[in-house]
Amino acid sequence: MTQTSPAQGGAVQHASYSTKFGSLTAYEKGGVELIADDARHYAFSNIFEVASKMPAWDRVAVAKNWEYVLETVRAEGTSPWYTASHDEFALCMDDSGSEVLVELVKLDSPVVAEGDEGAVLVEGEPAGRRMGRIHLKRGHQALLPAGSAYRFVKAGAPGVLLLQTIGGPLTQYRWAEICQTV
Description:
By secondary structure, this protein is mostly beta strands. It is built from two helices and twelve strands; from the N terminus they run ββαββββββββββα. The longest helix is centred in the N-terminal third of the chain and has 6 residues, at 47-52.
């Protein structure tokens, strides 16, 4: 709320905002609103729309800044095991009423060389000590530590995760399919 003094000729101004949360089953496409720029400098995609059209556990880049990417993932069933030589983060954007479970294992020996970028698949069951589990609901974030193996388990209706990572062999770039442009 913005308030100015009536003595200064001002009045109380009220602004009303309503936050809308998207989900896999209910989202609005949205778009890019330009103020003083050229639309050709921008691309726009909706993570819920992207996840609704992809198979479970595909990792599709929806944003990129140098080597860093945000990948959207349709969370459904049990994922394969993954690992990376660097930290990653998982943000639950839609839990569809039931949590997304993250299982973590500290690997006995690295599966990926230090300095390799992006997540890779771990063949079979990872060898190492169980580190624990993280229960994610909408808006919760989990650290996926470097040198650990992780997998996601999502029972019930599909959900949506947003992964912050470095682009790698599992990152799918589908810009022509997913982005709104001029």
